[in-house]
Specification:
Layout: E1 2-6, H1 20-34, E2 38-44, E3 52-57, H2 70-82, E4 90-93, H3 100-103, E5 110-114, H4 120-128, E6 133-136, E7 147-151, E8 172-176, H5 185-195, E9 198-202, H6 210-217, E10 226-228, H7 234-242, E11 246-249, H8 259-266, E12 271-274, H9 279-282, E13 289-292, H10 295-300, H11 302-305, H12 310-320, H13 323-360
Parallel strand pairs: 1-2, 1-4, 2-3, 4-5, 5-6, 6-7, 8-9, 8-11, 9-10, 11-12, 12-13
């Protein structure tokens, strides 16, 4: 198949540090190329891919201080794709609302992976285009009345995450994610202080979250019990997660997936998460971690989590969240949508031919 992938422009594909969506797009795109598909990736120009790269911007928007209106480029990317829609059998959008209107104006089908959660405002936009094909990344994400054609869990290349049989001694807890209220770094700190175990924290601080970081996080960082590592690359991330006794996922919102959970478990590290959003789907409760109903409970279950078999954590990811399984899911959906389009085209051609034959008859 000839497939177009539309990636967000905020980070490059794959991201050098933080960027869950861009990492997923990278893994999907490269695996599709390996399977023999002709794939074109519309992304930032600094992206690295096995597909044909069509750069929408020279580099990732987050790193370009000269760009004052990033929204302009978020509009530009789908525009470039849909001008060339006839070149593709299917278009796969990872950019949310930005592709909806244009997708409805071309005959080439678009499938939309929903990487975020819904707001009251975004539901209005999606509702206008509810019959387009949508893919959820967890069943819990399906909070809007849309035409869902499947759920495809995010996947990783498990081999890129070294398995660590035993955590570092003395033990520490890990937190990896954006330093924003919904990711719950403030709760991770409280859990660490309640248990008395060291906490290593890594992730980025966006401009919009700087005030939160300064007021709620910074004064707790002492370099001893609470250590802040900043943004980390892949090898640093694997080391952080793999050597941890447990990874904390103390979210305050309905997280649609949470890639860090499977990254940690792939390293053998169990995850303690809040029962919100996709967490009960991603963590095998009592086997690869614990799903809790309060932040206090997250601290209380730590002794039990430390007794879990780390090899079971790895197996859980291998069996449920690999790139192979993810792309199998996407490929099956592509084939179904393209086949349905072909069937409709055949039917319309046959109907047109029949009508023309009837018109030609002389009575």
């Amino acid at each position: 198949m000839k497939i177009a992938q539309i990636a967000p422009l905020w980070e490059r594909v794959p991201p050098p540090t933080y960027g869950g969506i861009e990492l997923v797009v990278s893994r999907v795109t490269d695996e599709l190329v390996r399977r023999g598909h002709e794939v074109t990736l519309f992304a930032s120009g600094d992206s690295e891919t096995l597909a044909k790269l069509e750069p929408v911007t020279p580099g990732a928007l987050r790193l370009d201080s000269q760009i004052k209106e990033p929204i302009i480029y978020e509009v530009l990317a789908p525009g470039q794709v849909y001008q060339r829609a006839t070149e593709f059998d299917i278009i796969h959008s990872h950019v949310g609302v930005w592709s909806l209107a244009l997708a409805s104006m071309v005959s080439t089908p678009t499938v939309h992976t929903l990487h975020g959660s819904f707001t009251k405002d975004s539901q209005k936009v999606f509702g206008e285009y509810r019959m387009q094909p949508y893919i959820s990344i967890s069943n819990s994400q399906r909070q809007a009345d849309l035409n869902y054609v499947g759920t495809v869990y995010n996947g990783i290349v498990v081999e890129e995450y070294p398995f660590v049989e035993k955590p570092q001694d003395p033990p520490y807890l890990a937190f990896l994610g954006r330093f924003s209220p919904e990711k719950g770094p403030q709760h991770a700190i409280a859990i660490a202080k309640q248990t008395g175990i060291k906490l290593k924290m890594a992730g980025k601080v966006d401009v919009v979250d700087q005030k939160f970081f300064d007021q709620e996080i910074a004064h707790h960082i002492d370099g001893r019990q609470i250590e802040f590592l900043g943004e980390v690359n892949h090898s640093q991330k694997s080391e952080l997660l793999g050597n941890a006794a447990a990874t904390l996922f103390p979210i305050t919102w309905k997280e649609p997936f949470g890639l860090v959970m499977i990254e940690a478990m792939a390293c053998g590290t169990p995850v303690i998460g809040m029962r919100m959003g996709s967490v009960p789907e991603v963590i095998a409760h009592g086997e690869s971690g614990m799903v809790c109903d309060s932040y206090e409970e997250m601290a209380e279950v730590l002794p039990m989590v430390l007794e879990l078999d780390r090899s079971k954590c790895r197996e859980w990811v291998e069996n449920n969240f690999s790139v192979t399984q993810m792309v199998n899911g996407y490929e099956a959906i592509y084939e179904k949508i393209v086949r349905e389009r072909t069937d409709r085209s055949w039917y319309m051609q046959a109907l047109r031919a029949s009508l023309e034959s009837l018109t030609a008859l002389k009575f």
